[in-house]
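Build the 3D complex.
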Amino acid sequence: MKRHYPTEFLDQLQQQANLVEIISSYTQVEKMGKNYLAQCPFHDDHTPSLQINPETNTFYCHACAAGSKNHSEVKACNAIGFIQHIEKIPFPEAVEKLALIVGLSLPNLSPQQQAELERRSEWLELMSKVGETFHHNLKNNQNSLQYLGNRGITHLDIDIWKLGYCGDETHQNFANLRNRIVFPLFDYNGDIVSFTGRVPFSTILLKQLNEKAKEKNQKTQPKYKDTHGVNKGDHLFGMHIAKEYIRQSRIAIIVEGWTDVISLHRHGAKNAVSTMGVALTQNQINLLKRAGAKQVILMRDGDAAGILATERDHKLLLDHDIKCFIYPLENGMDPDNLCLSFGYYNENLLKQIYRFMQPIEQYKIAKIYKETQDDILYHYGIINQTQEDRLEKVLDVLITINDPVELDIYIRQLSNLLLISYDAIKDKIRYRREKESQQQAKSINPAFTPA
Ligand SMILES: [Zn+2]
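Done.
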């Protein structure tokens, strides 16, 4: 049986490997600014063409494209890939060799665990093969190409995101996708783990077809269908591309739809990922952290469901010390619409997003202010009650802010806005925090009574 290693182990190995040192033991390496340059061992190199980036621990040859998918063999850009190809050994042996260099002991796996990993690697192989077939199908399917074209999806998008079309494929795993345009879901490493199929009709046409089907008592068609067996909550669509851009900027943009991600990337916001319609999960947050995200911009529909989801995501992100922003979309707009006013592959869209994003606390306070302002202005008889209610709501937001400077700025602004003294707001926050920590102590130790 082929030996397999868990992803977590491989990640740890890659992180601990010093790629500059490893490549130095095979060829001459020189420091050039932030990066290193080496004589490429994968082609007959006379000028050093192999660039090593110590920050990402990756390599790339500017002459023969080793370390990218454009090279015929050396597609991986990491330490395991380098060793595998320079030593001309199979993948598991390269892993073992690197583990020896790094000084990590190999994980001791039970036969069941080995079998599980074997199954996973077979699944990925199948997905990759089927993905190629779907992709090829789409290129010969004029109707679907036209449908995608009408929605602004370019030929380059189709190649970047490996979009496909499932014809009458007989494989049982893909029966769900029959006659649908197919979006592959890639995992963090860029392997296809599942597909989502969408009928190639406009929403209006789909509705008409479904009404006709209902009249005839036939089954109606949902817009999207998935392959079975993969939990969407474990992945973020677009992450395999976005992770590099998130690492550079420390910022991730989160949208709901698949095509939103494709549009945002096309218009230059390549740090965008999608939760694919589900609420942000713990595992998805782990992926964001793995890519080094410190800030997240939520870009959601401004409807009630969107606001609720934003609220939920904010709570979860707070626990992980990731700063949460929102980009307020105008009523009825989605990220796709927003992209339309910007060119392809330039910086203007991102500039606009960074300029107009709001810390979620600010957004929430502005909302509370707007909702209560009518009562303050026109119902003078209840002004005290309104003022108090409003302050309590604002306090709910303020106590989530841990940074003292940030909090100070908010209190100063609010003092002016709400016409309440700085000290009064500050006292209220202190009082709330004390009450909360007492409650926490109580829940840990029910016998606890404050002195
Ligand atoms: Zn080369």
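The longest strand covers residues 180-186.
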